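Progress against Task 2.4 (sequence-to-structure conversion) is shown through the following example record, which the project officer requested during the mid-term review.
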Amino acid sequence: RAGSETNKLSTSASTTPSAAQRSMESGDSNDTSLRVALANALYRRGVRREPVRVVFCLTLGGSRASVERDVLPWILYHTELGVWNFFILYDGKDADALRLLRSLHNVFVRALHKDVAEDIADEPKMRERYASWAERHWQWGHRPGNYALMVKQTFNQNEAVLWAKVGHADWIMHIDPDEFVLPLYQGDGSGDDLSFARYLHKQPSHVSSLRIFNAEAQPEHAYVKNRLEEVTLFKMNKALMHFDAYAMRTKVRLGGNRAYMILYANGKSVARANATNLRSLGPHFWKGDGSPNAPWTDTLADDATILHYAYTRVEDVASKAGTSCPGDEYREAALRGNRTKLKECFVIDFDLDAFRVASTGDSVAIRKFFEESMVLQEGARVRCRRSETDATMGWCEIRDVRSLIADAMRIGLLRREHAVQAISRSHARLVRAVEHLSKLQGASGTNVDALFDAALLLD
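Structure tokens generated for the chain above:
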């Protein structure tokens, strides 16, 4: 097993037993097993055609259901874009989720907690290294919530760098499963227009690190279930917008939000994996001593975006109570409104506010918070001055939201983006087609893999 994991940066996975067959034998749903088979077929295609090796590293927890719903579509999308491998630190305790991730040929995943599943490779030693890392960063590692997560993320980043260098990867990026990279449309419409690998391959040799700014998802109704299908409107980053748009941003700052973008606006960087002494500079950035061809050089990308699907569903708010701050003391602090205590857990105010309302367990209050804070719809409330002579801010309700969105899109404050939706739909069509053919032919798992390979050759 250790050998097979180490070789996940090799040039072929053709000798690996069919993931579709293994999934079916283990009792996985047919839809999930087919999506795993599609991901593995996309990986095999990428091995043949992509010019550089791109590694994504991330830390995640969650159940098998959350991996099926959110992580698997995210991996499918980025594998479609030519991302080579995913280096995952699994901070959850669901053995089924871990097995599902390990059925993907381009995923190398290690469990932070023992006894989730049988240890692989150097997992026990990895946990010892993490304990040492957390102790050295005690000012963060001994704090719960966001602070502890950042310690785990930066640890995993530095572990991923070593792994990527051994595998001769070219680029590395730390990214979360609610963030989707979107390079500017390039090429001649031949199907390679959205290849992130080819986008990076075109970067000048002196570029060591490329910062890609983020756009934040803007839900337009309160009943989103499939974020990739139903959310296509995004708030653009202030770094990339015209002054006229920047001045207008308060018109779509919903509810009591203190900022236009509720989580972060500084983007994330992708760095050359072979840079000398490459290391994490926090979850968003990298630092090194130089690229092979020049001193360390940070560059800003104006032709790529990270689409951040933050808080696009009511469930994203509701889940905060169970995933953010451990222990009853923080739940009680939330119910008492003790923000000082909650600051021990949270870096960002909106996360804290979401935790406070989620801790009540009141589904009506949770939906009300989500609608008021996140949903750009008719009647949504924004802070405003009713006239130029008003000394203080009051509340206004949005009327004719379609015109407001059109105006905001025209000046670059908002952007409509369908690329992720389109790719997600294409994957769903492929899965349905292969499922239909396999039923007609009585195909085995191995033949399912062959069907996906053939379909992708025609794509």
